[in-house]
Amino acid sequence: LSGVPLDSANPVNEPVEISTWKDSTNTYERRTYADNSYRLIALEKGLEAPAGVALPAVITGCIVTTGTGYQQNQNCRVSESTATYSASFVATYTFSGGVYGSISKASNGNVKGFGGVASSISTKIEKSRSDGRIPASAYVKWNFKMTGEVSGGTTYLYLKVTPKTAYTVAD
After folding, report:
1. Which of 12, 84, 135, 158 could form a disulfide with 169, with the two C-beta atoms 3.0–4.6 Å apart?
2. CA 36 to CA 57: how far, in whole Å?
3. Cα separation values, 155 from 86, 103, 139, 142, Å
4. What is the pLDDT of residues 116-149, one digit of tens each?
């Protein structure tokens, strides 16, 4: 109310108390500061699948930081595994007060081809901030050519961020 920034909003401030706990899917850490403001960080445990099993497109491993009116999801792994490829990239995205979603980082695009060759791999933020009904968007893109085939096709694994949700699309 006084207009003074919260201690938890300043990265140089140290917490006065740190508490941690776990559940079946996350490890949580609550950092409480001198003015009683806090940051809650949740680290999602990754899923492990048996060898040879395809995994749907998922977002895992985010370091979540919340504050008044925002939630930042840092270093999230966006990934998908199918019979012909395994693709992933790392992204950081933010939900801002239910008004807009934004993507500030998309990097480390990685694609492995099965039964063919993945080439021309690139990672890009296509639209950094959502507006209206159009979500923020980032992707890893690659060209895949099956062994013995003359031509190949381009495939995309997208991260889409709206004001309140994040989801993946493979195209």
Report:
1. 158
2. 39
3. 12, 21, 10, 6
4. 888 999 999 999 999 978 999 999 999 988 887 7
